[in-house]
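A.,

Following up on our hallway conversation. Structure tokens first:
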């Protein structure tokens, strides 16, 4: 059928079996982090635990003034 021009001859590439090697962006010492990164991680950890503490103990109710209102009509 290719001879009769019903079909064209086309090259097909199968990219499923190709495994590209991952190139690491740095040398063998990439496990070391900068002090700023470590400081940022510590601050983020502290912030997360502070927010979790405030949520668990319903810290937002302190700012709700309805429970602190005293009127003479009571």
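Then the amino acids I'd put at each of the 74 positions:
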């Amino acid at each position: 059928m290719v001879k009769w021009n019903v079909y064209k001859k086309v090259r097909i590439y199968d990219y499923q079996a190709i495994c590209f090697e991952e190139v690491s962006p740095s040398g063998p010492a990439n496990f070391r982090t900068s002090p700023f990164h470590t400081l940022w991680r510590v601050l983020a950890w502290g912030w997360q635990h502070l927010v979790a503490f405030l949520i668990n103990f319903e810290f937002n109710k302190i700012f709700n003034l309805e429970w602190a209102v005293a009127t003479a009509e009571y």
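Residues 2-23+33-73 form one domain. Curious whether your intuition agrees with the design.

B.
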